[in-house]
Amino acid sequence: MNIDRFVDGIIRFRWWAALLIPLITLALASQLRYLQFEGSYRIWFGEESPILKQYDTFRSVFGNDDALLIMFRDEAGVFNPKALGVVKRITEALWQTTDIARVDSLTNYQYVHSDPEYPDDVIVEDFIDDPAALSSAQLADKARIAAGEEMIVGRIVSADMKTTMIAARLTPKAGDDPEVSARLKAAGEAIVAKEAASGYTFHLGGGPILNMAFITLGEHDVKTFTPFVLLIAMVLLWFIFRRPSGMLLSLSVVIFTFLIVLAVQVLLGYRLNNFTANLPVFVVAIGIADAMHLFWIYLVGRRRGMGNHDAIRFSVRKNFLPTLLTSLTTAVGFASLAVSHVIPVKTLGIATATAALLAFVLTILFVPAMLAILNPKVAKSEAEESESHDALSLRSARFIMRHDRGILLGSLLLFTLIGIGIAWVKVDSNTVRYFKEHVPFRETVTFVQRNLTGPMAYEIVVDSGEKDGIKSPEFMRTVARFTEAFKAQYPAVRHTTSLVDVVEKFNDVMDGSPTVPDGRNLIAQYLLLYSLSLPQGMEINDRMDVNERRLRVTASVDIVDTSLDLEMMQWVEDWWAQTPYRAQVNGQTEMFAHMQHDVTDTLVESILLAIAAVSLMMMLIFRNLRMIPLFIIPNVLPIALVVGVMGWLGITIDLGVAVSGAIIIGVAVDDTIHFLVKYREARREGESFEAALAYVYHYAGKAIVFTTLILSAAFMIFALSDFVPNVNFGIVTASALVIAVVIDLLMLPAWLSLVDSGKRSRIA
């Protein structure tokens, strides 16, 4: 391809390029009015995901495990007319709320007891019907009774009787629709607003609140960070170029790019989520570099006395290959995320890879066309007369040559020390920890764990192996032994509940023994009597399957590291494997815990794929196997060093860090490419090593430093997010890019100084 002829074509049709690109962008951007956010748990899994299919099967049998939760605390104890009145009114209001299938609370708890007048009769009734009608003595008696009810203590009322929860179970498909989550959150807020006069502080939790937390934070980040990163870019570009043309041309390219890519996402039917909402910031960070390099070399040409068109040709000629390569490698870095099984990560990778290529196309077409139209006035500078070097570049080259061994040895020792930290890094994908502690959802979860029970739930489905098998005394006793063993093995397990509790309660009332009775028929009678006594909506069909073969055990668990979650879940299944029965852990906690494998796989597979793809591309371009380590090592080292620092500081790897790995390679390799392309260019022209190195620093050094500043500043913006994966992504990526530029401008040339033959010949 003849670059000059290509540029001449752009110059000739400059008005077409300058007008059509903005017009096409505006036309596509009109679709952004249909842009929507998605926060359902389902977005994290593909429709073919075995984890999602297992969860859907569980829900089809046992109903929805998702709920809208309302909690409050009364330091004097909740067994008083005011607190119980609040509980009753909230309970009744939730029963009237659309998409709510069942409500459990302290007032409508189905209390099983014997009739004082007829001891042989068992009564199942609401625990508290009319709080206002109870005397102080009766309230104290209710508190005493509640303290002995294992089915509710540590579930809907705390052991100290000061905190209570109203749990509204959702209808089967309610949690799948973000609009339903928004409606339920609003309904919950309206209900507690009516109770404001009580003076209680209410905490809302559950699936709808979690879904809306994802959506709210995503919307906040895209609305806040996009203009913020554009402002930072404007300030830095003005500082670098000190002229409006350089600032506006560079920003125009990235604005056109992310508007087009977002519009295409809308046209394809995608909704934004917490990761794809970051797309504009990513595009600004990765797309601005091409335009910067192009404008920087254009200014160099003009300062040498070139005319406008000659400077445009000079800049495109110098930048076309390196910007094409950097765009391809950046696209490869992001596209490698497509191997992830975490759907938001996959869609982010594909969208941003497309944006990287589009930014290159727009840079090559739009910037030269606008420069041809604007013809900025640039004064000729004597300092730019030299074709190969300036004083600073030459001093830098000579410093590297004098201290090359010391630089490499010092780097090796420092990197080894930092790298030791890798051994202490842990992976954690706990969903609750995705949110900073001041986020209302996180505050609610902390409140529940501190004052009431474990906020996470394991839904354990135990298979008896035969129809009606759950009524077997031996089976129920095994379930009872399991729950005791589970709580004894793991203190994080705060409460368990199942139909075994109901059977034991009936047997206690009827026979004075809170144990599983010996007869299968008696168990069946207890369950039938209990079921017939329940009001509509409180049935037990969510605790067993229709064939009464499988039993559901719900364990309330504290927030723990995902590794411990996985250990506990494996312990459950291993424990049951040693019995005649089998068990499987289900529920949303289980789903997100198993995302840890996806997080690890994303990190490892995307990095390996990015390294392989970039290495192959470089081999095809440079056709020199010896240069492959020069690409791999400087761009893998920043990842290893950042992970090492995380290990030393005790920071865990989460989804944000997993995403950063391949992106660091894709973006950091840009500096290496600019460096090596310029270096090879100088050596092919017969320059000595020193002259070639000075040439690199002159033409690429400042641009590399400036683009790294902009990239790091853009990614560091994510540290302001309340979504912790974004925070970790921003900090890790920005830190790695700073490390990468030091390696590229210090360690890489020192390495070249040792291995490049003929380096000692100097220029005058």
UniProtKB/TrEMBL annotation:
Lineage: Bacteria, Pseudomonadati, Campylobacterota, Epsilonproteobacteria, Campylobacterales
Family designation: Belongs to the resistance-nodulation-cell division (RND) (TC 2.A.6) family. MmpL subfamily.
InterPro entries in the cross-refs: MMPL_dom, Mycobact_MmpL, SSD
Primary location: membrane
Record membrane topology: Multi-pass membrane protein
Keywords: Cell membrane, Membrane, Transmembrane, Transmembrane helix
Pfam families: MMPL
Transmembrane residue ranges: 15-35, 224-241, 248-267, 279-299, 320-343, 349-374, 406-425, 603-622, 629-651, 657-677, 697-721, 727-752
Full protein name: Efflux RND transporter permease subunit
